[in-house]
Amino acid sequence: MKNTPELRTWLDDLKLEHPVVIAGPCSAETEEQVLGIAHQLKDTDVSYLRAGIWKPRTRPGNFEGVGAIGLNWLKKAKEETGLKIATEVANKAHVDLALEADVDMLWIGARSTVSPFIVQEIADALKGTDKIVLIKNPVNPDLSLWLGGIERLAKSNIKNLGVIHRGFSSYEKSKYRNIPEWQIAIELQNRFPDLPLICDPSHITGKRDMIFDVSQTALDLNYDGLMIETHTDPDHAWSDAAQQVTPQTLVQIMKDLKIRKESDPEGEYNTQLNNLRAQIDVIDNNLIDLLGKRMKVADNIGELKKDRNVAVLQTKRWNEILGKMIWEGEQQGLSEEFVLRIFKAIHQESINHQEKILKG
Ligand SMILES: C=C(O[C@@H]1C=C(C(=O)O)C=C[C@H]1O)C(=O)O
């Protein structure tokens, strides 16, 4: 699949002056709930009313969605408010029912994206549709799997495509429900700059008081839209209560968010920007130069170890370096997480270099 400006057509056709907003409850619960939320979202920045009807849950025994009847509630909400409607599909039966209900936007959930069989089944069922089809990132941080899902949809001749970044599962404890790993979405943007990219801060954060901050980060990174779970009584929602906001909060979030433009033609801004970027270029060259030099020293250490038949990994020395560099990093305003990441990568490269010598 190639990037083309046509990928943005459905988004451009909306003619919005703000990011596209998809909002609504995590799950459709009752007709009154869906209609109540829809009416409160009418005349806001929201273009698409979302509601989950079939809910994939981690453990059995939780609320698994109201099923097809929810489509009637969404249709009614569309008739009454003019909002377009969106729901998640996870198999061919869901797709057939959603298309029959004339749902405007369908999305594939993170737990489905991990399965090429499921994505292919959905792509086949949607073949040639002019509906908008969005694909969430897989639960695991695997860009190829995400791209593979998009390619399957594109091969099924689906033109109105987009992606939703909802963060990635991790065993590690984190302040996020699903760690954003922004660099994965940035890489995806690099490959497909015109593919509409939507952020789902509700699933990334899992907590309503972090939604604004993550949404702002997404806009700072050029995202095209937001999918935000919205409920008139979030605390009593039947699923994902902690991450849903009221329609009033959503309106406030949209008001407070700063919408960034991609660039600015203004002269003085560009002069200063180019100046600073020239400084970054010099520093980057120095970094590469220093890293190359460091690896040459590691090569020499490798030769020494080879002569004496000593193991490459020296945990004590390595831990001393880490401790020192975390402290030094702190003095330079660098986070521990960043220093650890960089030095683990440097250490691995150094080990690879020495391995080559010991095995050579
Ligand atoms: C370079 C060495 O080998 C390994 C690599 C290290 C590094 O790159 O700093 C540190 C400890 C070792 O695990 C060494 O023993 O000093």
Descriptive notes:
The protein has 360 residues and is α/β, with parallel strands linked by helices. It folds into two domains: 5-256, TIM Barrel; 268-359, Chorismate mutase (Chorismate Mutase Domain, subunit A, Up-down Bundle), CATH 1.20.59.10. Helix content is 51%, strand content 11%. It contains 14 helices and eight strands. An eight-stranded parallel barrel has the order 1-2-3-4-5-6-7-8, surrounded by five helices. Helix 2 runs parallel beside helix 3. The protein is elongated and about 80 Å long. The two termini are 41 Å apart. The ligand C=C(O[C@@H]1C=C(C(=O)O)C=C[C@H]1O)C(=O)O binds next to helix 12, helix 13 and helix 14.
At a glance:
It is an enzyme of class 5 (isomerase). With 360 residues, the protein is α/β, with parallel strands linked by helices.
